[in-house]
Amino acid sequence: MADYLDDLRLAHVLADAADAATTARFQALDLKVETKPDMTPVSEADKAAEELIRGRLQRDRPGDSVLGEEFGVEGTGPRRWVIDPIDGTKNYVRGVPVWATLIALTEESEGGYEPVVGVVSAPALGRRWWAAKGHGAFTGRDLASGTPLHVSRVGRLADASFAYSSVTGWEERGRLDSFLDLGRKVWRTRAYGDFWPYMMVAEGSVDLCAEPELSLWDMAANAIIVTEAGGTFTGLDGRPGPYGGNAAASNGLLHDELLGHLGSRD
Question: CA nearest 78: which of 118, 107, 116, 104?
Fold first, then answer.
């Protein structure tokens, strides 16, 4: 059985390179920002970070394929790296420090591709989280100084903290009433957004989070970190993994109740 530790070490090297590129342009007055066809922003830093990661993978893992937000799919095979060079670009271009590079390795299995390595690096926050299948999840500055992550043991909605990205996404999908009902039943709600709620679930400071529309690169690294920390990561339809186009993550104890409020009813 593969231990994925060499891949995890490489993912940290990739994250180091991306951090250097993104922090160098963070809050730059001359940062170039364009609008993609889906009306979301993309900065020169997004493209530069993904190009750096792809170049290193082409050298060190030439047999692996790559899927990235900015440049699509390259290559085929049983192993695929999934990259979001800057998760939280809207924050990045406005000078808000809540953004991160997400790097995951997925491997072909009976049910499709499964995340087996994940690194989430948020240099403006001074934080990094990572996991490899069968080795647990950690946070710290590097592999040598990692602290193990564990989800919370909160077992009642009335005691739970629920995180999300925005209200409008739920409204656009006709689920605003269910979203608000869940918000009324939990102890606390906060809209941290993007990668951060999933990392908080993994480290036990948040108990539930969900988003109604996401891409694979938004979720692959988050999914392996949450599950290796002892949590549950599914689509809103309850299917395990990051392939449902949306996400529900929890400490596991509250997952059925989370899906009961926000799960797909199509």
Answer: 107
Nearest-5° Cα angle at 101, 97 to 103: 160
In residues, how long is the chain? 266
Summarize pLDDT for 224-250 with one digit per residue, the tens.
Answer: 999 999 999 999 999 999 999 999 999
What are the structural domain ranges in the chain? 5-142, 157-262
For 173-198, the pLDDT digits (tens) are 889 999 999 999 999 999 998 999 99
The domain defined by 157-262 folds into D-Maltodextrin-Binding Protein; domain 2 (3.40.190)
The structure tokens 């605003």 sit at 176
Give how far Cα 107 sits from Cα of 14, 114, 126, 219, 250, Å.
18, 5, 29, 15, 23
- CATH class in words for 5-142: alpha beta
Write out the DSSP string of 232-250: EEE-TTS-BSS-SSSEEEE
110 class by beta-carbon count within 10 Å (0-12 exposed, 13-18 middle, 19+ buried): exposed
With CA atoms as reference, report the closest residue to 163 among 67, 59, 58, 258: 258
